[in-house]
Design goal:
single chain; alpha/beta; 3 strands
Length: 92
């Protein structure tokens, strides 16, 4: 069993699901952003540190080879920053 839920609209559901052994995926991106932006600002790691260790990062990034080079580079930089934040925070 599992859920995909954000803390903006689903904090009560996150609280209820945590500790039950469920898979819990949480989005990190601002919906529809391109280039990729994080829901809680540029320092995504600050948000991840507060998450329970059992929560899993979910990030939807729009990426197309025909995007402008600046957009592609920004998306790549944001994904790399998210990877680093996940590694540093101990989330998955």
């Amino acid at each position: 069993m599992g859920i995909l839920c954000d803390d903006r609209y689903g904090q009560d559901a996150l609280n209820a699901a945590t500790g039950r052994g469920w898979w819990i995926g949480r989005p990190t991106e601002l919906p529809g952003s391109n280039p990729l932006e994080f829901d809680h600002g540029r320092s995504v790691g600050t948000a991840l540190i507060a998450w329970p260790a059992e929560h899993v990062v979910k990030c939807l990034a729009f990426y197309h080879p025909d995007d402008a080079i600046a957009t592609r580079l920004e998306n790549e930089a944001q994904i790399a920053a998210l990877h680093d934040a996940v590694q540093a925070s101990g989330t998955s």
